[in-house]
Amino acid sequence: MASVTLSKINKVFGSDHIINNVDLHIGDGEFVVFVGPSGCGKSTLCA
């Protein structure tokens, strides 16, 4: 079917590094949920 791979994802707002060098592989058939406190970068990573 399908898989998703993110490699070396970075996101910077001004001088603030919100996401720094994230690598993620989601294999075919896997179910993934991002959890964490408000403002930790969950939506930023997926956007």
Automatic annotation (TrEMBL):
Protein name in UniProt: ABC transporter domain-containing protein
Transmembrane stretches, start-end: none
Keywords, in A-Z order: Sugar transport, Transport
Family annotation (Pfam families): ABC_tran
Top-level taxonomic group: Bacteria
Domain spans labelled ABC transporter: 19-46
UniProt keyword annotation of Transport present: yes
